[in-house]
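User: Here's a protein and a ligand (zinc ion). What would the complex look like?
Assistant: Let me lay out the input and then the predicted complex.
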Amino acid sequence: MKYLLVLAIVLVVIWFLRTSRRADKPRQDTAARAPDGPAQDMVQCPVCSVHLPRTDALPGPDGRLYCCAEHRLRAGG
Ligand SMILES: [Zn+2]
């Protein structure tokens, strides 16, 4: 009968480890999804002066980079 109790405790421990590992998974995913480079190339929108990554910026007809299409239109006229 003692072994049955030990088996029950082992099963509880395994279940506990599984649930805690599942809880840790999202944190690992966010860490893995961090940008590749140590520093991203940041640009500034000339309309609202907000800083944003160059990859998210919209190039305007004048060659400048804007945060959104609305500001690109506002600057371009
Ligand atoms: Zn802007």
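Summary: Residues 2-32 form the longest helix (31 residues).
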